[in-house]
Amino acid sequence: xxxxxxxxxxxxxxxxxxxxxxxxxxxxxxxxxxxxxxxxxxxxxxxxxxxxxxxxxxxxxxxxxxxxxxxxxxxxxxxxxxxxxxxxxxxxxxxxxxxxxxxxxxxxxxxxxxxxxxxxxxxxxxxxxxxxxxxxxxxxxxxxxxxxxxxxxxxxxxxxxxxxxxxxxxxxxxxxxxxxxxxxxxxxxxxxxxxxxxxxxxxxxxxxxxxxxxxxxxxxxxxxxxxxxxxxxxxxxxxxxxxxxxxxxxxxxxxxxxxxxxxxxxxxxxxxxxxxxx
Length: 278
Ligand code: LER
Ligand code: MN
Prior knowledge:
Layout: E1 2-5, E2 8-11, E3 13-19, E4 30-31, H1 34-44, E5 48-52, H2 61-71, E6 75-79, H3 81-85, H4 96-116, E7 119-122, H5 135-152, E8 158-160, H6 174-184, E9 189-194, H7 195-201, H8 205-211, E10 216-221, H9 236-245, E11 251-254, H10 262-277
Helix pairs in contact: 1-2, 4-5, 8-9
The structure holds L-Erythrulose and manganese (II) ion.
């Protein structure tokens, strides 16, 4: 959506997560039924769609790209969490073959992202540490995997997401992720910041957004209860003002529970965001 401020035209692009297939992760308003769901997302007024894709090889790409074109919906980002959640593959697995399989799978997401101009999300695909594996070793494997992915796909943006402590013990905060990016030293790897995780882990959401400004590629919004923004107690007005202040140009994408039902959650999100943005 575009709006006027201080005589300038400002754009805040809104998208929402649609899982290309059904999945056990629940914070996605829409799952499957691509034809009807893409139509609904467009009709509600979203500028783009974030697609959660388990395995690009099993997608009917011709049909999907036709539907995206018909609805005029760019893909803001590609979510990869189901590679971990459903297939048990991740960058810090003890078994080298499984680490390699995770790299190969993410490479196929990166190929799609290059074609679509989308960001690739590095969330739970990082995995978590195990009693048998030192955390420092897990971090080395993660650095190695991301170096390979980022070097092979220099034109694609990869966004590491700080995820709260109840889902992983690797990279929970913005500060830890910025430190990690410093070690990684790849310009096409930056951050995805998610208001739900930030509400749990960050001392100040707005200060952490400002600290990440140079490397902020993507934003997820969900309220404190992971319902649509406006349903909990996160101060989204201050988040929007901060994103304006740091000249954020990426998408703001709803990763929300389909509650009280999918369509109401998406409608409530867009109505609330439009109200606080303009
Ligand atoms: C994915 O973007 C996310 O936020 C995680 O909570 C997935 O478990
Ligand atoms: Mn997220």
